[in-house]
Design a protein that fits this description.
The protein has about 325 residues and is an alpha/beta fold. It has 14 helices and twelve strands. The protein is globular.
Length: about 325
């Protein structure tokens, strides 16, 4: 069994030990010629979010049987083509019991919100420039603000718990959830939900029905001066519409851990959002690090490698 780790840096030592008992483990070192040479002999590929395992990639992997990804979202993998080639995909998708003990993403979502409303990034940057002007960086308090959580799944539930600790008024929109705790107001209409809140937290998965789900048509229902935080997937929000809402000041701020086509270098270089971020303090962008904590990556890598071991034992 030949196993290739596409992103070996920081990979769990315990997961590595389990892998080495299954077969020969290869680490990709960034050399594309090496990758093209080794792919035809690889049985298992392990990847986080750094690579697009698309149709062309899979076609080069003539012996590929299993793709392993310690992620919940699978937009970096052409799952339909993999299925057509009888390649199994092992991931964290729908592993609800395990994921209930992973807190990295809701914590980072909260870090984004706090950084944005308290001007942490521009304030720290000014200190690095030997300035010390507290009047320039007055922020806002969270208490009594109306926070709206789009998607009341694992991440949304934890975000709601944190919001309660900050004494905020909490609204949820999720047509697939029938019950929410009594301290949360569940909304049945997206437009009404958006009109009631001034902070929107986005926690829905990316699929055909949620691509550009948030756009100028529905985001215009947010009260003027609202804030958006997205740590889900960039494609959920129409970026052109988002920029328009920021430049016209309909939104007072936005914090993103994700953008569209984020794995493509050319797309990032041409990104209007990143260009805007460089010159404006009402936008904050981090490089999809919400799930990237030592604890969460250790746990998730061990989990999916154990799932790989189970799968191989079943064959």
């Amino acid at each position: 069994m030949n196993i290739l780790k596409l992103e070996p840096n920081g990979f769990s030592n315990e997961a590595q030990k389990i892998l080495e008992k299954m077969g020969r483990v290869f680490d990709y070192n960034g050399d594309s010629l090496y990758l093209d040479k080794i792919l035809p002999d690889i049985d298992v590929i392990i990847s986080r979010l750094g690579y697009n395992i698309d149709e062309s990639f899979i076609k080069k992997s003539k012996n590929l049987k299993i793709i392993v990804s310690p992620t919940t979202g699978l937009d970096h993998i052409d799952t339909s083509f993999a299925k057509s080639k009888k390649i199994k995909v092992i991931s964290l998708k729908n592993k609800k019991k395990f994921l209930n003990n992973i807190y990295a993403t809701p914590e980072h979502s909260w870090a984004l919100l706090l950084s944005l409303i308290r001007n942490i990034h521009p304030a720290a940057t000014s200190v690095a420039k030997n300035l010390w002007n507290r009047e320039s960086f007055k922020g806002r308090e969270l208490k009594d603000n109306n926070i709206g959580i789009l998607g009341y799944g694992r991440v949304g539930k934890n975000v709601a718990r944190y919001a309660r600790a900050f004494k905020m008024k909490i609204y949820v929109y999720d047509p697939y959830k029938d019950y929410v705790p009594s301290y949360i107001k569940r909304m049945s209409s997206l437009e009404e939900f958006l009109s009631k809140i001034n902070i929107l937290m986005v926690h829905i998965p990316l699929n055909d029905s949620t691509y550009n789900f948030l756009n100028s048509k529905n985001l215009s229902h947010l009260p003027k001066g609202s804030i958006i935080v997205n740590s889900s997937r960039g494609e959920i929000i129409n970026e052109t519409d988002l920029l328009d809402l920021l430049t016209t000041k309909h939104l007072s701020g936005c914090a993103l851990d994700v953008i569209q086509n984020e794995r493509d270098l050319v797309s990032r270089k041409e990104s209007r959002l990143i260009r805007y971020f460089k010159n404006n303090n009402n936008l904050l962008i981090t490089p999809h690090i919400a799930g990237a904590t030592y604890e969460s990556m250790e746990k998730t890598e061990i989990f999916v490698i154990k799932e790989l071991k189970k799968t191989l034992l079943e064959k």
